[in-house]
Design goal:
The protein has about 375 residues and is an alpha+beta fold. About 55% of the residues lie in helices and about 15% in strands. It has 14 helices and twelve strands. Strands 1, 3, 4, 5, 6, 7, 8, 9, 11 and 12 form a ten-stranded mixed beta sheet that branches. Strands 2-10 form a two-stranded antiparallel ribbon. α2 runs antiparallel to α10 and α10 packs parallel to α13.
């Protein structure tokens, strides 16, 4: 029988142990794929438009800015296009249906972000014309089964209305798609003027200002000019890139890069212990089999190849299954992670890196116990058996 045949025969003989081991390996590589994909996308600059800058209150991005700040930003020579927005939020029918809704100045907002949104001209015009209309991202429209022309009630208890109602009703003027894969389509855009007039507090206040530099101007210097403009005001500002703003928002929940490394380290250390102990136990239980193979003339090299080959086979099959499961998981979560981790994907190099780590793991876990089994005296092994 060939070495490969011996490997398959041994795997079938201890199938329950191998199934449990493979399950552990698959889960570890599922974590590996998802966390590495997230960390790479989160840390990279991606294809996002790096020239756009976000201006928020220097105290905290949750503090509002007076709308007069927007006029000041637009008056700077270094600023090309600019717009502003506030977080609206709310939910559709039930609290679990939370919405990513923001109130914007329609005309200026589409001027800044128009190249990112794939939208039909008639839908764009309808949104600009009707104050009670909204634009809905394709992924959100698909989630709730919405279509153009639908009347959508949004419940918002955070923004009380003058009439005391908690429900806001909007007509869908258009459904936009992303012009590229990194554009998040899980948002709703509402008219700021309508919200500002109807709410009872924070009137004429805005959440943030987004701006793009005029031709030939540097984004960084434009941001510095914006912040200098408001240094002497009660609402000082800080201006940074869109990506940095998104990462600062996420960072309030902790250092994601550090968390990723710690989870990976813990998972792989546990995996190494499991694989090493399981492999060592399996080899010890088959000591007599190893002694018989040596007695009938099998070389040490061939027996080593068989024992290490079993470990490699189990880990490769389970590890690749885990990576493919990670790919499916990342694809499912891609739309919801676009804002903070655009382009999140399990890439070919990650597959190669995962494959290399599987080989290293398999050899490291099985080489020493296999060498011990082969080096033992054949007579002593058979006698103990």
């Amino acid at each position: 029988m060939s070495t490969f045949g011996l490997v398959l025969s041994s795997l079938r003989h201890a199938w329950l142990r191998n199934v449990l081991l493979m399950l552990s390996v698959a889960i570890a590589y599922l974590l590996f794929g998802v966390l590495i994909a997230f960390e790479r996308a989160y840390s990279s600059t991606g294809d996002i438009v790096t020239s756009r800058m976000i201006t928020v209150n220097k105290l905290s991005f949750t503090e509002a800015l007076p709308i007069s700040h927007f006029g000041g930003v637009r008056g700077l020579e270094s600023v090309g296009e600019a717009s502003f927005a506030i977080w609206f939020g709310g939910y559709f029918r039930e609290r679990r249906n939370a919405l990513h809704a923001i109130a914007v100045d329609p005309r200026s907002y589409l001027a800044v972000y128009g190249d990112d949104l794939s939208l039909r001209d008639q839908e764009r015009e309808a949104f600009l014309r009707e104050r009670g209309s909204i634009l809905v991202g394709a992924s959100m429209a698909e989630r709730f089964g919405w279509k153009v022309g639908d009347q959508v009630p949004i419940i918002n208890k955070r923004l009380p209305r003058r009439d005391g109602a908690e429900s806001w009703s909007f007509r869908i003027a258009g459904i936009f798609k992303g012009a590229s894969a990194i554009v998040d389509t899980s948002f709703i855009y509402i008219h700021y003027d309508l919200v500002n007039e109807a709410r009872t507090k924070d009137q004429n206040m805005i959440g943030w200002i987004v701006s793009a530099p005029a031709p030939g101007r540097e984004p960084g210097k434009m941001g510095q000019a914006i912040d200098r403009l408001f240094e002497a005001t009660s609402a000082r500002t800080t201006t940074d890139s869109e990506r940095s703003f998104a990462q600062i928002f996420v960072a309030q929940f902790g250092d994601l890069a550090l968390v990723t490394v710690l989870i990976l380290a813990a998972a792989f250390f546990s995996l190494l212990v499991i694989v090493a102990s399981t492999t060592a136990l399996a080899i010890r239980q088959r000591a007599r089999e190893t002694g018989i193979l040596k007695a009938i003339g099998f070389s040490h090299t061939r027996i080593l190849a068989q024992l290490i080959g079993e470990s490699i086979t189990v880990i490769l099959i389970a590890g690749m299954a885990g990576l493919f499961a990670a790919d499916l998981t990342v694809r499912a979560a891609e739309d919801s992670m676009t804002l903070i981790a655009p382009g999140m994907a399990v890439t070919p190099w990650m597959m190669v890196a995962g494959l290399a780590s599987m080989l290293v793991l398999a050899v490291a876990a099985s080489a020493f116990p296999a060498w011990q089994a082969v080096s033992a005296s054949t007579a002593n092994v058979l006698r103990r058996g």
